[in-house]
Amino acid sequence: MNPLLNKFDSAPFSKIENHHFLPAIKETIKSAKSEIEAITTNKEIPSFKNTIEALDFSGEQLDRITSAFFNLNSAETNDTIQKIAQEVSPLLSEFANDITLNHNLFERVKSVYNKKKELNLTIEQETLLDKKYKGFSRNGANLPEGKKLELRDIDKKLAKLKLTFGENVLAETNAYELHITNENDLSGLPDGAKEAARSIATSKNKEGWIITLDYPSYIPFMKYADNRELRKKLSLAFGAKGFKENANDNQSIVIDIVKLRHQRAQLLGYKSHAHFVLEERMAQTPKKVREFLNDLLEKAKPAAQREFKTLESFAKKIDGIDQLQKWDSAYYSEKLKQELFNLDDEQLKPYFKLESVINGVFKVAEKLFGLHFTEVHDIDTYHQDVMTYNVLDEGGAFVSLFYADFFPRKGKRNGAWMTSFKPQYKKEDKNERPHVSIVCNFTKPTETKPSLLTFNEVTTLFHEFGHALHGMLANTTYPSLSGTNVYWDFVELPSQVLENWCYEQEALELFATHYETGEVISMELIQRIKESATFQEGMQTLRQISFGLLDMSWHTGESLDTITSVKVHEQEAFKDTQLYPDVAENCMSTAFSHIFQGGYSSGYYSYKWAEVLDADAFEYFKEHGVFDKKTADKFKKHVLSQGGTENPMTLYKRFRGQEPKPEALLRRAGLITK
After folding, report:
1. Mean pLDDT over residues 306-311, rounded?
2. How far apart (Å, rounded) are the C-alpha atoms in residues 431 and 451?
3. pLDDT category, 511, cuts 50, 70, 90?
4. How many domains does the chain have?
5. How far is CA 23 from the centre of its chain?
6. In what helix (H) or strand (E) does residue 425 lie, and over which residues does it extend?
7. pLDDT recorded at residue 416
8. φ and ψ at 488, to 5 degrees?
9. Which of 124, 222, 390, 420 would be a feasible disulfide site paired with 645, CB 3.0-4.6 Å?
10. CA distance 644 to 528
11. Of 555, 577, 604, which residue sits at a domain end?
């Protein structure tokens, strides 16, 4: 019996075998189609309940199965799962098109939409009705039949290309190793990083040490290794992913994806993919995004150039470096930071044992939102490293199931993300609570040391946990409006705002204790963390702006027919933000998974956009105290629990009492003083 075809609450991972997925997905697509058929053949006059609501609750089992499957494809993949993904993606794309291009279904939706003023709907119901109608119109329901077929073909191709892009990046990451046999080549590397490199070598039955392109291995080497030639070698390998004209090359895939997205947008009556995407974002138009990024660029660039000159002078002074290169960036920045603030990750890591940081983020959530986390061991997981928790409110009521997966492994892509295995919704007088997961790639414990996090990893954990809170505290009626189902440039607010607590004494004293002595982090170290928070903020801002501009350059449809070289196009997009000399062998776009595999196409700017929101929101917390219950309750009530039930600016103003002001971000970044 296929365990995926039984109704389940938490995903039955231990019972699932790879061969279960394809038949289960095919079967539940069939069931979901029957549910759609029942809506379209209903003899009753189309109503909100029998059409819009019925549509939102359809395909529940299919959603549950695909949530589990695609998380496995990111967090615990293998050749078989990747092969299944290549089969499944076109099927799901086809099914999505079967819905949005279903003429009879659209006629029913349109019939309800046209009489919405008479229906006396709640705000949430109005939002759902608008979303369903736009879901059809923005996906070709108004197109003639021939054009609908063209759209289906484009969507199928895009689904496969995006998957292949991601598989190629993962294959390139896994294929590379820097094998070191001379210990002198590890000079400068902290003991923990050396031990981790030794452990990787041992796991591959090799002598010496191995550095990989996984972040916990790559970043410490780039930051601390004194051997400039080896830093260069590693940096070149990292920057060449998907850009080597081998079996994993992504250059033609990038151009194919971009052209297909543009074709799709034009087919639907939009000027470009960016125009299509941004219609459903707070920013609304490519023009507004460019203005936002260029305004930030104007304010950040002078600071970035000053910081770069300082770094150049510093590298020249201590090592006689005449021309700073990209592989020097992290190394000399870390040395300069130590000199200016007498602070480095190695000093801080003993205070950030992973288990303590997990407890810390739980305590912060308890103080702000009254949540309690209890580890449980009877929930199925897809890997032994995954931890599970029951989340309860102050009254002991069940809020959410929470999964946490922290360590890198071969079948797991780089980076960190939050996902959901079950959404929150209300049906038949029952509030179904969500199952939420965060996935990270932190340094594993070794034989002599527990997992000790860098400060950057601490903020990453808080960031993903902020997304998780958005999912956990959801309290809406409809699954498609629940939790993180919000405009893409609003989704980063809960995650980015939570990072602010990592810099606050009241929060750090809850969990930052030395793993050997139990000593609480000193006020002096906290002060230095705060002072160093704006270190090279101009350069960091410029870097983020460059990624946003690159994203927009690919998706606004300009000169698409003349693009013959991914690299040349990229250089043009980067020209106003470039500080380091270009590296001919490297290309960002061919491994830019956020925009070519994930959901950030025409949306990378949203990280900076959300920083404006989060800086403004946190200023409000600080005015009343970082653990002020009243402010936290407002944030929970108007932002975290509401999902996508209303326009995000309306929700934000209800919490804050005003629109966000970019000055809060510029103040926090030290780019302005008032």
Report:
1. 97
2. 37
3. very high
4. 4
5. 30
6. strand 425-427
7. 94
8. -60, -30
9. 124
10. 39
11. 604
d(CA 300, CA 312): 18
Q: Are residues 530 and 541 in the same domain?
A: no
User: Pick from 479, 607, 494, 614: which is nearest to 544 by CA?
Assistant: 607
User: Is the domain of 295 the same as that of 272?
Assistant: yes
CA atoms within 13 A on the CB side of 456: 14
> In 3D, which of 449, 447, 425 has the Cα closest to residue 435?
425
Copy the structure tokens of residue 171. Answer: 């294959």
Active site residue 464: yes
Q: Are strands 387-392 and 372-376 parallel, antiparallel or unpaired?
A: antiparallel
Sign of CA dihedral 100, 105, 107, 111: negative
Q: Is residue 592 within 8 Å of residue 242, measured between CB atoms?
A: no
pLDDT in tens, 90-107: 999 999 989 988 999 999
Range of the domain at 523: 350-535+607-668
User: Which of these is catalytic: 167, 464, 492, 504?
Assistant: 464
User: 479 and 423 in contact (C-beta within 8 Å)?
Assistant: yes
Whether residues 472 and 437 fall in one domain: yes
Structural domain contains residue 28: yes
Three-class HEC string of 283-317: CCCHHHHHHHHHHHHHHHHHHHHHHHHHHHHHHHH
Structure-token pair, residue 177: 């190793």
Query: What's at 351, amino acid-wise?
Result: Y
What is the band of 533 on the pLDDT scale with cuts at 50, 70, 90?
confident
Q: Would 170 be classed as within a structural domain?
A: no
Average confidence score pLDDT of the chain: 95
Cβ-based neighbour number of residue 203 at 10 Å: 10
Closest CA to 256 of 510, 671, 563, 14: 563
If asked whether residues 189 and 131 sit together in one domain, one would say no
Residue 570: both structure tokens together: 């990229």
The percent helix, strand, coil of the chain (3-state, each to 5) is 60, 5, 35
- Amino acid in the structure at residue 588: M
**Alpha-carbon span 336 to 320, nearest angstrom:** 15
% of the chain at pLDDT higher than 70: 100
- As a whole number of angstroms, the distance between CA 615 and CA 324 comes to 32
- Judge contact between 261 and 601, C-beta under 8 A: yes
Distance (Å, whole) CA 322 – CA 255: 37
Query: Against a cut of 0.85, is the pTM above it?
Result: no
The span from the CA of 438 to the CA of 415, in Å, is 11
In angstroms, what CA-CA distances link 203 with 136, 199, 200, 383, 407? 51, 6, 5, 18, 15
For 445, which DSSP code?
P
- Which residues have C-beta within 8 Å of that of residue 578, sequence separation ≥ 6? 546
Is residue 674 scored above 80 in pLDDT?
no
Tell me, yes or no, whether 513 and 378 share the same domain: yes
| Residue 672 clears pLDDT 80, i.e. is over it | no
Domain CATH for 548: 1.10.1370.10
Between vectors from CA 617 to CA 611 and to CA 623, what angle results, nearest 5°? 135
Which of 604, 623, 652 is the last residue before a domain boundary? Answer: 604
Q: What is the largest CA-CA distance in the chain?
A: 82
CATH of the domain at 71: 1.20.1050.40
CATH code of the domain in which 451 resides:
1.10.1370.40
Q: What is the pLDDT of residues 625-665, one digit of tens each?
A: 999 999 999 999 999 999 999 999 999 999 999 999 888 88
Residue pair 462/468 in contact (Cβ under 8 Å)? The answer is: no
